[in-house]
Amino acid sequence: MNDLFANRTMTRDGQLLLEKAQRDRIETVWDRFENQLPQCGYCEMGLSCRICVMGPCRIDPFGEGPQKGVCGADADIIVARNLGRMIAAGAASHSDHGRDLVDVLQEVAEGKATGYQIRDVEKLKRVAAEYGIVADGKDPAEIAGELAYAMQEDYGTRRKSLTLLQRAPAKRRAIWDKLNITPRGIDRETSEMMHRTHMGVDNNWQTLLLHGLRNALSDGWGGSMIATEVSDILFGTPQPAATMVNVGVLKADHVNIIVHGHNPVVSEMVLHACQSEDLLQLARENGAAGINLAGVCCTGNELLMRNGIPMAGNHLTTELVLTTGAVDMMIVDYQCIMPSLGSVAACYHTKMISTSDKARFPGMQHREFHPENAAEKAREVVKEAIENFADRGEVYIPVEPVKAIGGFSVETIVDALGGTPQPLIDALKAGTIRGAVGIVGCNNPRIRQDFGHVTLTQKLIENDILVVDTGCAAVATSKAGLKLAEAAQMAGPGLREICGALGIPPVLHMGSCVDNVRILVLASALANALGTDICDLPIAGAAPEWYSEKAVAIGAYFVASGVYTVLGPMPPITGSMNVVKLLTEGLKDEVGATFHVEPDPEKAALAMRRHIEGKRAKLGLPSLKV
Ligand code: SF4
Ligand code: MSK
Q1: pLDDT higher for 144 or 157?
Q2: Is residue 99 in some structural domain?
Q3: Residue 341 near residue 28 (C-beta atoms within 8 A)
Q4: Do 291 and 413 fall within a single domain?
Q5: Helix (H, G, I), strand (E, B) or coil at 607
Q6: Which residue has the least CA distance to atom 7 on ligand 1?
Q7: Which atom of ligand 1 is closest in space to residue 52's alpha carbon?
Q8: Are residues 277 and 136 in the same domain?
Q9: Are residues 146 and 264 in the same domain?
Q10: Has residue 626 been placed in a domain?
Q11: Using CA atoms, how far apart are residues 258 and 293, in angstroms rounded to an integer?
Q12: What is the pLDDT of residues 49-90, one digit of tens each?
């Protein structure tokens, strides 16, 4: 294999498709990354500012050039403002995704969103009760209407704190209150961050960063949590199910449709259309053996979690999957969809369809989905995909797919444990499982694709540390075969024994990137059962290949919730040692957790083991020498 391709991705399908892309003269994300090198050092350090038009300004990190922007902002202020705006963008993205789901819930309640229904009535009632809604004597539609209204209130500005914060341990909420970072309205915190970072508002880097934590918490315990809960209510709470992953899930004799993006509002309707008998018949009449729906990125994870739909790849595979020539249509909603996709598709027969009024892309046809027309629109586009099957050229599907198990919601994990987290707590206390780590986030061309996720995961499970993962990390470990019960053979003896007894893999797929909140809910359940705080648990978080602003918000709400979090790529903060020190050391005294940056996954695993052993020792649990 060409070394260049082997250095870009550890995946076999990725390497072979990079060769194909080169043969077909397709430019990929890696080519464009290399074309950008060397990237701007000021920006990498967070030292450039273009907040106002007296600028743009930059601070000289060597102390020889300007040390202040035109307005007088120094390096600390500029770095903190830039980071604050990254958090605001990430929180806004997740939370707006959540809002779209609440809108569907509202329309289902009003009988307008034909095609959607409430699949998990029990969860509807449970979540409604948390919002103080009495369900007795009401039908699900009525409860859904009241819940949608109450959740919309959480987005507004009238409350002092968000409803679902009640799920956090009391000690954690007390910390947030003491620091005055208890999040209020979801939109309010993002709006306030944009205000604070306007020229001439908050020019104290510490208070800017504290508001960054508050803004991130409004996502983690607000917008993202609402997104996950409403998705479960509308589309069903995930249950473990077998699936297949990598580009080999495409089928040469089927109409292949790929869904890409994040929100299940579109992809669930596409799935229904793909399963309808008349469209399957049409596919057969057009010479195909059937319709094969597969996902990439997180809308794929949403379908995988609930329906076992196969997954063709993660973030850096999204262009390569088109080079197979086997994709008859790619349907996108929003987030993480590279604007290059339309031009890649134009070299093949693939039809590209955008569906959201807020996300348009070059080279894509726009078919706008709304709750009231989504079922019908989905049928229309699936029909077009079928008609496009005849236009295929040569097809190249170079690998066989890998089996995986997905669908581990908190509910199913607790069910697998016999209805209570106690067996997990007992295993942690005994040291059979030494701790748990949540691995989340993306791919990034700075890092060999999947290498960070897979190496870190392998090192952790070898050390009897249970791994739960989401997003593109979850796809990476699935492709590497770590999401099979047999993968327990790679785990240490304790974790292997538990996995064998429960019939689960050592790496549990917990969903998409908004579903990181499932990890928060699980951590809270453990902390509550132990009568302690999240920061006292032998757990950690990691984002070994993150790239997006959403990942910054996720990392910030993990740390603010008390989870020590290791990042692979360095965030753009090194222009201010004050900011670096606060995030990597100082926050420990404030929220009981810090960030740590370590691009080498083996060293990251070691840092997490040390952290976990330290927490075990503090809880008086048996230790293992690190
Ligand atoms: Fe320059 Fe200050 Fe304007 Fe930023 S806010 S661009 S540092 S003048
Ligand atoms: S899709 S945010 S690349 S996980 Fe959620 Fe993957 Fe990261 Fe997008």
Answers
A1: 144
A2: yes
A3: no
A4: no
A5: helix
A6: 69
A7: 3
A8: no
A9: no
A10: no
A11: 6
A12: 999 999 999 999 999 999 999 999 999 999 999 999 999 999
Q: How far is the CA of 54 from the centre of ligand 1 (A)?
A: 6
Can you tell me the mean pLDDT for 207-224? 98
> Which residues line the pocket of ligand 2, CB cutoff 6 A?
262, 297-298, 314-315, 336, 441-442, 471-472, 512-513, 548, 550-551
**How far, in Å, CA of 556 to CA of 562, rounded?**
10
Query: Both 177 and 134 in a single domain?
Result: yes
How does pLDDT run across 290-300, given as a tens digit for each residue?
999 999 999 99
Q: Is residue 157 predicted with pLDDT exceeding 90?
A: no
Residue 52 near ligand 1, beta carbon < 6 Å:
yes
List, in sequence order, every residue forming a beta bridge with 352; answer none if it has no partner.
330
Residue 121: per-residue pLDDT: 98
Q: Does pLDDT of 626 surpass 70?
A: no
In a shared domain, residues 79 and 192: yes
**How far is ligand 1, taken at its centre, from the CA of residue 69, in Å?**
5
Is the separation of the CB atoms in 197 and 51 below 8 Å? yes
Residue 211 lies in a domain: yes
Task: Determine if the pTM surpasses 0.85.
Answer: yes
Q: Which residues contact 53 (CB under 8 A, 6 or more apart)?
A: none
Q: What is the CATH number of the domain that holds 418?
A: 3.40.50.2030
Give, for ligand 2, the residue of 297, 337, 444 to mutate: max count of ligand atoms closer than 8 Å to Cβ.
Answer: 297
Three-point CA angle 134, 140, 143, nearest 5°: 40
Q: Are residues 488 and 532 in the same domain?
A: yes
Across the range 514-533, mean pLDDT stands at 95
**Counted domains in the chain:** 4
List, for residues 566-611, the tens digit of each pLDDT value: 999 999 999 999 999 999 999 999 999 999 999 999 999 999 999 9
Do residues 127 and 229 make contact, with C-beta atoms less than 8 angstroms apart?
Answer: yes
pLDDT at position 91 over 80: yes
What pLDDT was estimated at residue 417? 84
In this structure, are 222 and 270 located in the same domain? no
Q: Are residues 327 and 200 in the same domain?
A: no
DSSP state of 404: E
**Structural domain contains residue 341:** yes
Long-range pairs of 531-535 with CB within 8 A, sequence gap ≥ 24: 532/169, 532/171, 532/619, 533/169, 533/171, 533/172, 533/175, 533/562, 533/592, 534/168, 534/169, 534/172, 534/561, 534/562, 534/563, 535/172, 535/562, 535/563, 535/564, 535/591, 535/592, 535/593
Give the model's pLDDT for residue 419: 87
pLDDT above 80 (res 625): no
The CATH number for 106's domain is 1.20.1270.30
381 Cβ below 6 A of ligand 1:
no
Q: Which ligand is nearest to the CA of 52?
A: 1
The pLDDT of residue 359: 98
The model's pLDDT over 395-408, given as tens digits with 9 standing for 90+, comes to 999 999 999 999 99
**Residue 33 belongs to what domain range?**
3-58
Q: What are phi and psi of 440, to 5 degrees?
A: -135, 170
CB 163 within 8 A of CB 131: yes
Q: Does the beta carbon of 54 lie inside 6 Å of ligand 1?
A: yes
Distance CA 436, CA 595 (A): 17
Using pLDDT thresholds of 50, 70 and 90, give the confidence band for residue 624.
low
Could you say which ligand is closest to the alpha carbon of residue 42? 1
